[in-house]
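Researcher: Structure for this, please.
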Amino acid sequence: MLNRMRGAILGLAMTAVTVHAAPAVQIQGGLTSLVLSEDVLETLVSCQIERIKPAVIKPGGDRLRFSIGSGALDLESALGEIEHRGGLLLQCDGGENVVGLQNFRIDHQMAETEGDSTDGSDLRLTGLISVNGSITERIPVFTPLDETLDISAGGNVLRIRGVSLGFTEEVVALLLEQLGLTVPADVAVATSYTRVILRPVQGEAGEDGEKSNNGLAKGKDKNKSSGDDEESEEEIEEELEEEGEEEIEEESAED
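Model: Predicted structure, token format:
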């Protein structure tokens, strides 16, 4: 699974991003959409779900959207982090506790111990946990249930489509202890669709090791206002959201 991720990112590097001695690229933005399964919707029928902004809960409550705020990926090893913003608050009938799952992170690092994976790396999908408004810890939240990933790259956008996710044992224990919910760890709780916008590398390294900035002074381009940048990123996010909704509708029709 991780080897396919590495291959897709390397393909993106060859076609869209200028790679220098250090092949790490910053993540400009993006979106992850989650389509909740019928099993988890039935489990949560007695619970109230509220969003932690800027997360979005689509009408009907079965689709969630989290914006990607930052991160970086190494184009040779596919190691890196993808940071999301926002989250969810859960409270169930008859209970007093409110559990928060937020600031999700896709974290692909070298494994701390041998044998964690076939290629010596470790893929973790973690989140910050809060109980009654107090953050307690960051733990693994989701685990991919698929052996392969549907990954494609075009321009400076990396797409990871239709990944089936289950809750980790840590989250299963958390939901049972704090909310009285029973969710098996091996059951698919959601299908994810992720689109990552990579920031192209600007300029080339000169003889003195300094990168050219096309004659511009270091710092921000003063011909661009911060408002223009924000509008551009908003337009990109709207386009990605529309693409994601179309993909979800197409897969739902096939099923």
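Researcher: Any notable elements?
Model: The chain has a mean pLDDT of 77. The chain is about 25% helix and 40% strand.
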